[in-house]
Design goal:
Blueprint: E1 2-6, H1 10-15, H2 18-32, E2 37-41, H3 45-55, E3 63-67, H4 74-81, E4 86-89, E5 99-103, H5 105-118, E6 124-128, H6 134-149, E7 159-161, H7 166-176, E8 183-186, H8 189-201, E9 211-216, E10 229-232, H9 235-252, E11 259-262, E12 265-267, H10 274-277
Parallel strand pairs: 1-2, 1-3, 3-4, 4-5, 5-11, 6-7, 6-8, 8-9, 9-10
Antiparallel strand pairs: 10-12
Length: about 280
């Protein structure tokens, strides 16, 4: 039996399309390799204490998958010290002696912003995730690196914080409008959808007035008009591979730790304005 531990309330778990897709890959791998999957959602500090006592109980779970997370994620440290086979989904803040699977979020975000720069945009904003998460910091770092290496100034008014929800993308874009961005890199597709809605409600067009690139390539990326240019990460495969790594730890020992970095891909659609500009990639 494998336990999947996510730092999400039940409502946010089902509202964010990323996590059902990730869980689908995990569940399929568990079925294929004859493991049972248990799901544990952490919404409060009390939940963390209760869940730790359950998942670390010797002989109950063969291994644990846990979503990476936030600065000072003590649960990961506690599980590492318990010597339970453990794979962290996403880069943890303290990666030493931890097996984890991730994408290169810095490089992927750099690719997204560099694409906008190649299209001729100079005032490029970003809507980040929460600044206490590793994925948010890495994608912000990639954004900043692309600007600096292409000789563009970093304007703090073009950087706003979201929380990976559509509502935060909408609010973040309302804040960004005052800074007059020509393009925006949103750290998730969900936030990009909310931001594009804010642009349309302001009487502006996408990509005519403001171009967009998102991150994830969830199915919803193809729904808006125009469809969203985004960074594709292999979410389903991500979950499937995490289970395979965990099984390796269960069968062959937790040392040395395993670290897998999966590839991402820039998927060009109409929201970035590439087709209008007739740029050959």
């Amino acid at each position: 039996m494998i336990g999947l531990v996510l730092s999400r309330s039940v409502s946010s778990f089902f509202a964010d399309p990323y996590f059902p897709r990730l869980t689908q890959g995990i569940a399929q791998a568990c079925n294929q390799y004859d493991f049972t999957l248990g799901l544990f959602l952490i919404g409060t500090p009390d939940d963390e204490d209760k869940i730790y006592s359950r998942v670390s109980r010797k002989g109950w779970l063969d291994g644990i998958l846990i979503q990476s997370g936030q600065i000072g994620d003590q649960l990961i440290d506690r599980l590492v010290n318990s010597n339970v086979p453990l794979v962290v989904v996403g880069r943890p803040f303290n990666p030493e002696h931890v097996s984890y699977i991730d994408v290169d979020n810095v490089r992927a975000a750099y690719t997204a912003v560099a694409h906008l720069i190649r299209l001729g945009y100079k005032r490029i904003g970003t809507i980040t995730g929460l600044i206490n998460s590793a994925v948010s910091l890495d994608r912000k770092e990639g954004y900043l690196k692309a600007l600096v290496e292409h000789g563009l100034a970093v304007d703090k008014s073009l950087i706003v914080e979201g929380d990976f929800t559509e509502a935060s993308g909408y609010r973040g874009m309302q804040q960004l409008l005052a800074a007059r961005p020509e393009a925006v890199f949103a750290a998730s597709d969900v936030m990009a959808i909310g931001a594009m809605r804010a642009v349309r409600e302001a009487g502006l067009s996408v990509p005519g007035d403001i171009a967009f690139v998102g991150f994830d390539d969830l199915p919803l990326a193809t729904i808006p008009d125009p469809p969203l240019t985004t960074i594709r990460q292999p979410i389903y495969e991500f979950g499937f591979k995490a289970v395979e790594i965990l099984i390796d730890l269960i069968e062959n020992g937790i040392k040395p730790s395993r670290r897998i970095i999966m590839d991402t891909q820039l998927v060009i659609r109409d929201s970035c304005g590439a087709n209008q500009k007739m740029v050959i990639q």
